[in-house]
Amino acid sequence: MTRVVAIVITAALSLSCKSPAPAADRGDAALAPTGPAASADAAPAGAELDAKLAFRRDGKDVATLTLAEMLARVPAEKFTAFDPYYARDKSWHAIPIAPLVRSVFGDDAKLRELDFVLIARDGYTIPLVGEKLLEPGGYIAFADADVPAWEPIGPQRAHPGPFYVVWSKDSQRSLETHPRPWQLVSVEIKPFETTYPHTFPRGASASAARGFRTFRAICIHCHAMNREGGRVGPELNVPQSIVEYRPEAQIRAYIRDPKTFRYGNMPAHPSLTDADLDDLISYFKAMKAQKHDTGS
User: Fold this and answer.
1) Are the C-beta atoms of 176 and 217 separated by less than 8 Å?
2) Range(s) of the domain holding residue 241
3) Which residue from 76, 184, 249, 280 could staple onto 9, CB 3.0 to 4.6 Å apart?
């Protein structure tokens, strides 16, 4: 199992679980390097030069950098790309993720083999493998280049600053494969099984094992299993498993398109096949017999 790298970004505002907006066709993102960015005398509107990003490893602080210090390490770029939350092109002042991460942890090829977990203030949790997080096109936006201040985002009209993870390539539009957390707060380097030890379906069937992989890739961002995982959405296993109080057909329909039941923050998952949903149900059933409740 790979190791987990968590990047702690200290932010002051709350985040809501995100619902994807429809995508629109456009060409490749237009990238325009701006050189060494934002000084205290000439910062883009909305930039918070004293906002801090803390990097941790195995529970220990590696570095805590202000935005000004990050910009001194890695030149900012201004680019325009489609943003699925805004459902249109947006322009950002942003720092490329890969060189920033390498400036802190070292230019080690093994970073691509690690797991990165980004956690937002309200508990929204983003596990990403290093290969994904460090691929070209990933940025940390620190100012909205379209408006004097940050444009509100998501169904709760949240303030996305001081840091918002964005992607520049057309192939990186999907929120399932390339999440876009804003207002991140904490991260730590640990093996995944140490961070979420009670989410694994021990002795499970092949179907439940596949369901676990889907849960880890998509659901754990917002939902916890045995009190481990995201805190935006409901806990799925304790004190009762979701399969103990919801009919299977309802669970499937809700996962596929929750807004047919009620308006809320949970996104639809039209890409999940019937077989994927079968596997998720198998995982929920397997975990029903493996409850672990640490209490409130």
Assistant:
1) yes
2) 196-288
3) 184
